[in-house]
Amino acid sequence: MTLEIAIVLGVLLCAVILIASEVLSIDLVAVLMIVVMVAAGILSPEQAFSGFASDVVVALAAIFVIAGTIARAGLTESIAVAMLAGSRGSERAGLGLVMAVSVGLSTVFSNTSTASVLTPVVLSYARRAGLGAGRLLMPMAFASMMGGTMTLIGTSTNLSASGMVTALGMAPFAFFEFTAIGAILAVAGLLFMIGPGRLLVPDRRPPDLVADYGVTDYLTEIEIAPGSSVAGLDVAGLELERAAIEPLAILRQGTRLSANPLRIVLPGDRMIVTGGLDALLRLRQDKRFALVPEGETAADTARSDLVGLAEAVVLPQSLLVGRRLGGTAFFRRRRLKVLGLHRAGSPFATRLDNMTLRVGDVLLLQGATDDLESLKGNPDLRGLAEVDPLPPSKPAGLAALGLLTAAVGCAVAGLVPLPIGLLGVVAILGVFGITPLHEAYRMIDWRLLVTVAGMTAFGLAMYQTGAADFLAVAILRVSVPFGVPAGLFVLGLLTVLLTQPMSNAAAAITMLPVAVASADLMQIDPRPAVVLVTLSASLSFVAPLEPALLIVYGPGRYRFVDFIRAGGPLTLVTLGLLVVLVPRFWPL
Questions:
Q1: pLDDT recorded at residue 340
Q2: 505 neighbors 156 (Cβ within 8 angstroms)
């Protein structure tokens, strides 16, 4: 082992530990890896920054904007609701239909976007059909991950890996290169989850299904400001039901009173209410009330810099878990206000600042745009999506979908490179005011782009120094006696294991140089090995650390072990299929 190899592997080990322990965010770890590689003389500055100038980063940024525009227009949810209506109450049919819709949507949208859109739809469908939402949400998230493997833009992992294989001297992945094998994997996964896998998914229903509001229902507080026109009216006279708001209790001078319809409200009263996100947005515009953040008074909400709203979820292993909402300085340090809290189950008639945070709690936050953006990639509280009270219209969403289809068609026909086509779509959306540039910048996950660029450079360092060859030899010492299939299986298994402390894209980029080196040692074409690693990175279902799985973690009332029990066998099934199918599509 040379000194350069020791440095590269040492940096890799430190990066895995830092990411797994969540001491530093993954994007910061990626930047530090670049700095160390340049400082050690392993990479030149041009090589270190080559990932930031790649067409993959441009394509990823454009996809964030286009998919965000279509999702915000409500088009995907309308399609999903219409398709879900065909299951007629059968649990198996409903499960199959939910997974099929999820697979279809995730071929274009990221699996995170698909899970975000479908979670409230599935919760609503489960209530209407009398089914347990937990039986549907986990398979839906699994399906979104499987569907994302079918196209180049279905998941950031495919795009990121395409850029990496280009840096390694191979042809980039074609747009539909994975479609056939991805479809087979999706069908196999669907059949597994409808069959034996269905028995492995827990069904933890609340005592009252009506209380299962879904991810967009929040507990919050409103205040009757002095001089308000509603002061002196009874609760019924407030007509909150017309705004889809349910009053739970009234707080008056430190005393909690029931929200009896005949009770008179007085200036200074606070009312604990629950309602959906749209209802809270309408309530925010109602001058008769003040939507009161946790630990504040109505007068404190008038700051001019508190201009944005966003949703964020409490992550597993977060330092916020077990903390009382009013007793943590986390939000004050970040200049954020908590307007509402969603937790699967019945609403609590208690003040927000008395709530103890749990894994999967979804918070409605108010703050300046840059402060809200800082939550993306945060190890304690991950920003899900910024809330825009004026989303694009459905015709605008249809226009964005049509433009995306045209760009993909031109790329497939060889008329224009895919990144240029996607960038052109973003430009058109901006010119016609469908997605203004300031909104487009907010839709982009800049931290993911930095991570992809940084990890691409590190992957190049692994390849150039021989660290990838060193790992490949270690792998093959174990697997070669059992043949090439065993070697491919070990490559896929190591990739799956790396997706636990790292993001899927980062795990793929890290393992791709190892796959190329392993292919050379096994005397096979490197293409099958890099394809297997790329697809394996997207098919790890064993822990709720993937954002798509984290989104359903709370609403489904899951526990960590549930994903091991249901996702572990599914991961082994798909990995086994990859070992068998990849050599059929990409000859060794």
A1: 76
A2: yes
CATH architecture of 212-387: 2-Layer Sandwich (3.30)
Closest CA to 454 of 162, 31, 23: 31
How large is the angle between the packed helices 55-72 and 394-412, nearest 10 degrees?
A: 150
Closest CA to 30 of 513, 436, 509: 509
Distance CA 16, CA 499 (A): 10
Which amino acid, one-letter code, is at 342?
H
Q: Which of 364, 351, 365, 355 is nearest to 322 (CA)?
A: 355
Comparing C-alpha atoms, which of 145, 96, 98, 87 is closest to residue 121?
A: 98
Q: Residue 359 — left, alpha, or beta (φ > 0 → left; ψ -120 to 50 → alpha)?
A: beta
User: In the chain, what is the straight-line distance between the N-terminal and C-terminal CA atoms, in Å?
Assistant: 29
pLDDT digits (tens, 9 = 90+) for 326-381: 778 788 777 787 877 777 655 555 667 778 888 778 887 877 666 676 676 566 77
Q: How far apart are CA 419 and CA 59, in angstroms?
A: 5
Angle at 127 between CA 550 and CA 354, to 5 degrees: 55
Q: What is the pLDDT of residue 187?
A: 92
Contact 466, 411 (CB under 8 A): no
CB-facing half-sphere around the CA of 8: CA atoms within 13 A: 27
> Which of 154, 175, 61, 55 shows the shortest CA–CA distance to 109?
154
Helices then strands, each counted (H, E), the chain: 23, 9
Q: Please name the amino acid found at residue 29.
A: V
Q: What percent of the chain has pLDDT over 70?
A: 79
- Please tell me the distance from the alpha carbon of residue 338 to that of residue 328, in angstroms, as a whole number: 12
> Can you give the residue ranges of every domain in the chain?
212-387
Alpha carbons within 13 angstroms on the beta-carbon side of residue 426 total 24
509 touches 105 (CB < 8 A): no
- DSSP 8-state code for residue 559: -
Q: Of the candidates 113, 40, 50, 33, which has an alpha carbon nearest to the alpha carbon of residue 80?
A: 113
pLDDT digits (tens, 9 = 90+) for 184-234: 999 999 999 989 988 888 876 644 323 333 334 677 788 887 778 888 888
Distances (CA, A) of 212 to 29, 34, 57, 232, 558: 39, 46, 39, 33, 14
Name 219's bridge partners: 274, 341
